[in-house]
Amino acid sequence: MIELCMKTEVVTIWPDQTLRQAVELMVEKHIGTLPVVDANHRLIGLLTITDLLGLFMPDFVNLLDQIDFVHDFGALENVRPQADVVDQPVKTVMRKPIAIQRAGGLLRAFAEIARHDLRDLPVVDEHGVLVGIASQVDIGITFLNRWLGKLDNTNQDT
Fold first, then answer.
1. Cα angle 110-108-31, degrees, rounded to a multiple of 5
2. Which residues, in sequence order, are bridge partners of residue 34?
3. How far apart are CA 112 and CA 101, in angstroms?
4. How does strand 100-101 pair with strand 120-124?
5. Closest Cα partner for 17 from 81, 86, 83, 118?
6. Residue 42: beta bridge partners?
7. How do residues 2-40 score in pLDDT, each as one tens digit?
8. Which helix (H) or strand (E) holds 23?
9. Cα separation of 7 and 132, whole Å?
10. For the structural domain made of 2-147, what CATH number should be given?
11. How far apart (Å, rounded) are the C-alpha atoms in residues 127 and 8?
12. In whole angstroms, what is the distance from residue 45 CA to residue 21 CA?
């Protein structure tokens, strides 16, 4: 079960907070995923560092198929987003909620992470309340520990 490897202390954000506040949280806490929750702590969305960087990076970077010939983007790497971008509420750019229930299997969680191109997957209870978060690394290490015989395999959950 995903409960075996999830973290229970999760940094979250509310939908009406600004992207600037989201950036500050990510930098301060050194995290790449912010679950967006309502007043009842139910998961209502997801904001990732990839989502934020996509807003702030020059558009042409996303259009380049082959960037091997570009060694340095120079001054473009130091461009700051305009205030109207960072002061908009999180709810304007957040993804739909993507999560797994706490009783969900590790393989299912790993598949959801891959399918949605995530690094972290929120974990919710049967009411959609956020109870934890598991990273791709957390899940992978749990599998590797099983392979090494360091975890009991009697609860095979795929």
1. 40
2. 47
3. 12
4. parallel
5. 86
6. 129
7. 998 999 999 999 999 999 999 999 999 999 999 999 999
8. helix 19-29
9. 5
10. 3.10.580.10
11. 17
12. 16
Whether the predicted model's global pTM rises above the 0.85 cut: no
Tokens of 25: 């949280």
The amino acid occupying position 153 is: N
pLDDT per position as a tens digit, 103-138: 999 999 999 999 999 999 999 999 999 999 999 999
Question: Between vectors from CA 16 to CA 22 and to CA 82, what angle results, nearest 5°?
Answer: 55
* 32-38 long-range contacts, CB within 8 A, separation 24+: 32/119, 32/120, 33/118, 33/119, 33/120, 33/122, 33/133, 34/90, 35/10, 35/97, 35/122, 35/130, 35/133, 36/12, 36/90, 36/91, 36/94, 36/97, 37/12, 37/13, 37/130, 38/14
- The position carrying tokens 């309502």 is 38
Return the structure tokens found at 30: 């050194």
> Which residue do the tokens 């702030």 mark?
56
Q: Where are the alpha helices (DSSP H) in 57-102?
A: 59-63, 83-86
Token pair 């807003």: residue: 55
